[in-house]
Amino acid sequence: MTTETAPAGRITLPGGEMLAWSDLPQERLADGGPLAALAARLVPPGARVLVAGPHDPALLDRLAHAEVTCLLRSHPDAVALAHRAARLVVGGPAGLPEDETYDVVIAAAGLDPVESVEGTQLGWDGVLARLVTVLRPGGALLLRLDNPLGLHRLVDTTPWYARRDDAAWAIGGVLDRARPANRDQLRERLSVAGLMPATCWAAYPDVSTPTALLDADHLDRDAGSGLFDAVLHGACAGGFTSATVLQDPARLAVDALHAGRAADLAPGWLTLAHRPADPEDPSTPTADRDLPVALVQTGRPGIGVLEVLHGPSGWRWGLIPTSDPRTPAGAPFASGKAAYRDADALSGPVPSGRLLRTVLLDAAVRRDLGTVRALLRGYAGWLTDQADADGRIAGAAALAGTDNVVFDGERYAVLDPSWRVTAALPADVVLARALWRFATGLLTGGYAHPWPSTLDVAGLTVVLGGLAGHDLDRATVSEAVEAEAAIAAALHGLDAAGTADLATELHAVAPTDPPIGGHSYQQLREAWLRQREELTRLAALTAWTEELLTSRERALRRAETTISLLSGSISYRVGRLAITPARLAKRGARAAKRRAIAVLAPKQEEQQ
After folding, report:
1. Which residue from 291, 480, 500, 554 could staple onto 433, CB 3.0 to 4.6 Å apart?
2. Are 229 and 254 in contact (CB under 8 A)?
3. How far apart are CA 25 and CA 55, in angstroms?
């Protein structure tokens, strides 16, 4: 059965279709993001692929090298995707042909949206079993599972069990035994279904549109990885900017990483499982050895998706370029800008070590000034070594702030060398910019620290510069803030007016402000407490000033009273009577002297 608005023969309606419902995601990433890049890597050329459930249309575009069949429950969605797939089956999984098998089955939207409410309900295990039956021996299944205890639920202001919107059609909690609730239960269900679980990726910050996919096993083992630290912080800081949350998701994700629980707190997981070609040989295919440790969405023209591969010599950067042939890889954002991203620089090894920002924050919270001083002096010395004969730093080192530098206990290294400046910057400005960014995060983030609470951001930057062994002044810090505004404007595509507004905002950042970006109730409360403390200090200062003025006014009144009393006494009057004639005589003598001089002066001139 076909429709008038879709190509004839592409849409099959076996029954159970939902005619007035749409599942297609509203939020979409460029080129489909890391999920589409992973799917394209898993699917070999010419393979027969079943995409079960609603997915980003960009994912289907990345599978143009394969024969794709879509299993949907929404008829409007099938019409919208008809030009992107070879065939579309609209209805529940029971409508799949019995005699067809596929090389790869992708259910990256989960199993719940595969079932249609208009057809037979199979349940989670039933849908999985049906997908396994259409998977050929030796084939691969990519399956998504939401985490009922994920970070997204821990920071959400609305409890998951109170949702009543259309997206909450099926909500499962930890008490729902019909679905697995963690990775161990998922592996058990897959094994029972006859599959071999292989690689599992933790999806951040949202399992429906993840901007970062991180190997769960590596997350558990490499808890101190600066790469994972930076990726998690960036993904969670950028993924919750449009919503107010209970607490800072980036800080929570980083803490979970260093506690070895980042994979357990992921909003969801993408698991790759295989159907054995030979039941007596349950071995993982060798192709899985080339799967990425991390996939990160950049959202920048010409960059595509970054990937990290695990090789014999350690982790190495990789690049999955954009699918748009009109955008050349490695092109700067715009000519004449202060900074750009060079994709060609992402080809070497990933440096090991802990992220400098995290180590510095830890030392500051513990009031360990010795560690802070040692780290900052080492970092400043490393920056000095990157400067040329004129004392200027160019390339990636000029943007190597504390959030893009790793420290392995002996050496400092740039984590992501693709961020570059177009013109070299003075070494003091580079250091001041890095310290200003760290000071801003420290003060506005509400972290405890060993320095006076009356310091502003620029003042703390100067103090940090002193700890680093450099005599920075406020003029240098101001120049660094201007450089930060120009760099941020280049990276975000702002015009001249936007750059000026951004510079004004950055100069006005105060310790009592909440952090720049997304806000959490926890951070807003800390900002309110800092503002209340500052108001209390100012009120005390005002009270002290008023008390001082009052005491001075009282002393002045006492002096006036004393003068009044003295001026009305008998001795004062007698003295005044005695002094008055003398004053008059003195005044008359001065007048007579002036007259005599006036008379004698002309005569002396005539005699001369």
Report:
1. 480
2. yes
3. 7
